[in-house]
Amino acid sequence: MRIIFKTDYMQDIRPWKDGYQLSLYLILLAVMIAAPWWLDMFYLGELTNVLVWAIAGLGLMILTGHTGQASLGHAAFLAIGCYANVILLEAGVPFLLAFPLAGILTGVIGATIAIPALRLHGIYLAIFTLALSILMDDIIVLAEPITGGVAGKFISGVDIFGLTIDRWGTPTYFYWLVLVVTVLVTLGYINLLRAPLGRSFIAVRDSEVSAQAMGVDIARTKTISFGISCAVTGWAGALMGLYAGAFNNETFSVVISIQLLMMIVIGGLGSIHGAFFGAIVIGFLPQFLSISKEYVGALFGGDTVAIPGLEFGVFGMILIAFILFEPMGIYGRWLKIRTFFELFPFYRKDMFKRQKSYLKTERLR
Predict the structure, then answer these.
(1) Which residue ranges run through the membrane (predicted)?
(2) How many domains does the chain contain in total?
(3) pTM as predicted
């Protein structure tokens, strides 16, 4: 059993517990940087897709996982970030300027929408954001001169310091671009949670009454959380557009919003790791099912048959299984396993037992 004896307040708020944990993260980063040398192009593309989904999951995690505000409309902000990035690029703005501006613009729009939206709570807020995601489809079609309407838009690649980065032409460079964005967003998220603003998010999530009693401005905190969440989601949308190459109003459907929410629930609400675990499930599940069907077909001597809705059916069963047996998600299960080995033989099963009763005043009305 390893015990960390803290002698300084800075030790309590640093991004990693100790040098051992830091070394593990650095090893993981080195493996990810070297991925193009040990993965073929197909799996490198799938890994790139996972990282893009992880950025989108981090965006929603800020709002839902750490501020406690349910959203089923983040596909709309993926679309805003994607179209804003492409429109700025078409206007001649360099990518290194267009990409950050796309996220900032998405964040400003999200914060503006949040001012009336966050007067709602729980299921009503989820319905409002769901309606927003559905409405975005019509907005893209109606704004055809800008968005291309049903025909959509096409982008082949971007230039950074004279180097062409294209999803299909130079997949290695595109992977490294997505990896850099993922690392920067993750580091920013970690430092946000260490700051007073991030602690205000968690306070609002746990108890709005208690947070207000401690001087937290509830409306301001929720609005900022919505804005930051939408900004990160906008960056993910911009990368999704570059990854897909071509997109239209149907690319960012309401199904994407539902997938995002289920992704962070399966990965583990309220944890940065949960966004990555959920993205792995989302990214690799379609390929796993495809390979499994081919294997089953070869094993039983038959052709593989496409089963409509198989992917969502399996994903739904996975979600139900986690809600019933592991509400803390994949990361929660990993925490229990790690704690078991760290505290063995003193581990108690009730350590992770959920509180059964809650105050009726946990949410302001």
Answers:
(1) 20-38, 44-63, 70-89, 95-115, 122-143, 173-192, 224-246, 252-285, 305-325
(2) 1
(3) 0.89
